[in-house]
Amino acid sequence: MNRALPSLLLAGAFLASAVPGAAADAQRPVVPEDLFKIAYVSNATISHDGKHVAFIVTRADLAKDTYLTNIWIADTDGARVAQLTRGDHDSEPAWSPDDRTLAFTAARGGPSQIFAIDLAGGEARQVTHQSEGASTAAWSHDGRRIAFTSTTTDPAPPSHVDWKALGVSAPPKYAKTDIRTIPWPRYEANGGGYVYNKHPHIWTIDANGANAKQITFGADGESGADWSPDDRAIAYSTVPLSDPEGDRSRIFVVPANGGKPVAFPTAHYSAFEQAWMREGRGLVYGFTSRHDASGEFALASANLDGTGERVAVPENTVAIGDAILNDTKEGGAGCGVLTSDGRTFIADVSVPGATQLDVFDMEGGPPTKLVGGKGEIQDCSVSRDARTIAYTALDATHLAEVYVYDRTTGKSHRLTHLNDALTDSLAIATPEAHTVSNGHGGTVAYWVLRPPNAVPGKRYPTVLNIHGGPQTEFGDAFFQEFQVLASRGYNVVYANPRGSVGYGYDWEEALLGDWGDAMFTDEMAVIDDVVKRPDVDPTRTFVTGGSYGGYATLWVVSHTNRFRAAMAERAVSDLFTETLSADFAAPLGFEGAAGTPHAWGPPLQAHATLWEQSPLAHVADVHTPLLLLHSDGDTRTPIDETLQEYEALKMLGRTVELVEVPRENHDLNRTGEPIHRVERLHLMEKWLERYTR
Amino acid sequence: MKSSLPAAALAFAAALGVAPATAAPPRATIPEDLARIAYVSSATISHRGDRVAFVVSRLDVPQNRYRRDIWVVRSDGTGLRQLTAGDGDTDPQWSPDDRAIAFTGARGGPSQIYRISLDGGEARRLTNEAHGANGPRWSHDGTRILYSATFVDPKPKTDLDENAAGGKLDAAHQLSDIRRTDRLDFEVNGAGETFAQHTHLLVIRADGSHRTQLTPTTPWSESQPVWSYDDRNIAFVSLRRPTDPERIDSDVYVVPSGGGALRRVATRHRASASPVWAHDSHNLYLTVSSRPDPAGLPGIVEQGVAATSERAVVPENRVAFGDAVLTDMREGGAGCGPLLDPRDRWFLADVSVPGATQLVRFDAKSGRATPVVARGDEIAECSMNDAGTRVAYVASDATHPAEVYVASLRGGASREITHLNAAYLASVRIAPMEHFTVRDEAGFPVHAWFVPAAVPRGTRAPTLLEIHGGPGAEFGNSFFHEVQLLAGRGYNVVLADPRGSIGFGYPFSAALSKNWGDPMFRDEMAVMDAVVKRRDVDSQRLGVLGGSYGGYATLWVIGHTHRFKAAVAERVVSNMTSSFLACDECSSTNATYAFGNAWDHQPAYWAMSPIASIANVTTPLLLLHSDNETRTPLVDADQWFTLAKALREPITYVQVPRENHDLNRTGEPIHRVERLHLILDWFAKELP
User: Fold this and answer.
1) Is residue A3 domain-resident?
2) Residue A499 lies in a domain
3) Chain A environment of B656 (Cβ under 8 Å)
4) Which residue, A668, A690, A5, is CA-closest to A331?
5) CATH number of the domain to which A650 belongs
6) For a tag on chain B, would you pick the N or C end, based on fewer CB atoms within 10 A?
7) Does residue A400 form part of some domain?
8) Gap between the Cα atoms of B473 and A490, Å rounded
9) Which domain holds residue A667?
10) Which chain B residues are closer than 8 Å to A607 by Cβ?
């Protein structure tokens, strides 16, 4: 389930178009272990002068079963690509205003801290020394200060034991209680453990490491610190965890030297991701007018007193952000930046099967496409003169690399080639794009990834993969899992049924309140189309998916026996329990608030509908052999969801197996321990193979 | 109810060096008193009947651990001494010559079998099982000891091709930690994920040599092993039907004690358990169940090992064998028997009756029952000497924690032979339990107890209704620290046995089989209607609390009446669907027998779920749940909390880490003490 707030992050960018293919001789199949050979490139961060790009390279390390993350630098003229840091846990590069120093976040023994490294040479120096760690450096415009985030953890209360009554003094080990008093429903965060007692606050520090000062306080948490042009104030946003609406963000402005925060007045349901307008007279921000999981936020600007709002992008018109799924993320990233003249906004936008960089006029009007429409742009950043945009991009047959787009020439060029040697050695399958009518007036986009060395005339077993979210999309992005299956002799079919992002608000909205049937209709239209192909063996088809895709897999096998076997990962089996027990559980329910046309409504009133749309209600109709995989630390879709389906199927005597992966959260297949990720792929391969023969 | 403390006990306490209780006036009990109580269990009489070995457990709160050791006392109460000092010692078993005791010792590392001589010297370890051994049982000739050991399936190799990965797996990553199962019974409360753990039977010589594994290493486990009197065979219980979704369907098997093929004892019943050998070593007495009925009471049959014919001794659904009385004092205690007389004429068993348990003698032919020890208290465990003339047992009543008793089966009286809690009892004020009954709308008498608050006479005190778990259990005449604590703080406490409770006949227990909540609610309210008429009850200050089914009941109650001004619900079931399908014993609780399955009968499941009525709640609620629960998973507390917040109901939600379903019975000592403070603080705040 993808619940990240739509984000418009850093600087602007442009899309990579086709990257040249590789030579075809002596290529070997893609295998799960290629995870250890891929350089995962991300966070392209251009210097203000547009001459350099800092970026992150992540590699999986087998012996340590962990990821090594370091910062690299590429010159935009292509002269140099070099590794800058070697701390192995370095991220979030941020250029100083004079481009001489790079601040970054690093965990170098103990919690992460802000470090700074001089581009002229020498090792990094530690800037912050926060006992609970620091991250997300943001330079003041004068380059003298850095704002960062440090989390305050509520102290544990003293033990409730009356030690005196026992005739002893409190043993130091047990002086504090470990019993948790939970203040509100969203007390955990996927991958972040218990968050109810943790409050990320904004601090400032002099660039030389002196005068660390806490700027925001309180029972909530703040993010998105942005310095005003005169460096006298900092804007930020906060989502009060205690708010029963659950997802309502507010913007505040606080004096940069500390003081009382002032709320940015807005009538909107939720406002977030603020950036200062030129001369500091107002803010640019996103807003939504209601609780709507499939809504696309608006982009607007207004004066600091809330007057003079101008909507640059109306709500539910453009899907700002990168909603494409790949092996490293579940969409939700992307980029968005206000150019320094304050007139335009450059952002990553999700379109059918791809993302692109668009320029928006803050006065309104239709956006202009800069680059893209093919492949996936994951992130972007814009030089001070707004002429040069750095971004990382990938497509179905190429791993992410760093690109630079020059607005003067209108051309992109690639700066890095960290994966060329690998991809040249691999037999990578190329997807075919198709569409099919869903019989309900809609057209469903889908892809078929054929085995790379498919023998003409031979029919292959075929795997239908259903994506999670559901507010994401499949698209033109390298997906190792798909390549592995194709290499093993499967056609891999993946589609963007109703509920997917990138096909317009109505398409996304069409799933709400009808979570199972609309998806099922669309996915079955796809598979009906696919089994007509001469290279598909219609008697050996499989279905799989994770999260919402796990829900969808359960729903599919509850409504058809056409698949030989299925694998559902981190599934939702019961919408009522999921709605109320997930880490993003909002008391109003995650689809339930007023105003959304097809919403289920509050869970208590909607129980019968929620049950009817739950796979568990139809469990007796499942006859497809099923593998259920769930991480035991998943709080997004708690493991109880899988246990309910598993136990019901066992009681029915069906063929079902349960796999629990320890220590992992909802993102096992994206950011899980590398060995677990490889094992998961082998497990999937072998489960399919058992039913392929 | 027993008379108050005998003077002899005080003298005894003084002799033990305990400070004389007369030094200070008695005070109210406090949560920390959990550490002052000696928890007495496992009374095991010697073969000759002249001595009793038993276990004393204590909470060491500063170290946050339990200390359990084996003590011995003569049957006349003299010669009390602590025998072992391993602090993790349980299950004492006398050698046939009564000169040694075998026991299970957890002394760092997994538990092992030890033996200790009664003539002096420290215990010696007999086993070295990698994953632990327990439950020693001597052969009748004293030459061998049977025990159970845990076997853990080897983890599969990490599924990764090092060549393809271009590196080497670290030593710590050679084996996969991904868990995979196709079993329904893959996890068990407190034991974690058990699908890879299996218990098998082994035999060693009494000196620890010649280890022989009797039952093969399979995915199935064996339990309740018993030697035949000729030492040639061992009967045991096992559940080896992989395809049967009804998990309670265990069978009795027999295996030769020197090793050999397993033979199932072919009963015609759905499930059989608790084998007891007749002295001819050919026949077995078994408990049997014919239906997967959660309220069902097993019967007893006599059956030849090789024969398919059986002789019914006690019919099903007639007698509630075992100890169903619920308190916070016990670590398990499962009752006792059948104990067969040396000439097979009768057997003795612990039986649950209204508000108490009894030792009952059953004629082995006719099944006719004669109570032998029936003092209206709780008998948790018992054992009998070889001659069948004397029993040792552990008993407790409302004002006395458990102690060891010995009774003559030849008409003599019972005698309390330990007084380990005498000094403690003399130092605190203990409230009595006043028994009363009301008649419910179905015509059943509902048994209940009123525990008066420690307040000045004539004062109307706030009053708490405590609802028991199970629901197949009962409150009764047994010491309950939590209840004493609440009474001592000025609350009257009401305990009732509503429909669904055990000990009141099968129809009473089975009354919840169509609706889990409503009959309980009506009975509890009938009890409260009577209680509020008392002059010492403040009907404007009522509270309600309970755990497990009692947590379900508490949520049900506050969703159906506003008469309570504060509630504490622990380890709740709030949503019947999620709770019954995500729990570790979903099918063994056989909810489907009573309610049908959740997918075909969803409206009924929903109607029985307290969360369906949450919008009616106005009572401030303390919701308390352990985060390592598999019996009533945390998901039920989360659901309730999220909705209660949405409805802006007054609620405090507390999670206790690392604990399972038994926090209030076997949880970490510090957590147990803290839990009681949380409950006291809650009522102090909400029922001022």
Assistant:
1) no
2) yes
3) 179-180
4) A5
5) 3.40.50.1820
6) C
7) no
8) 56
9) 429-692
10) 606, 612
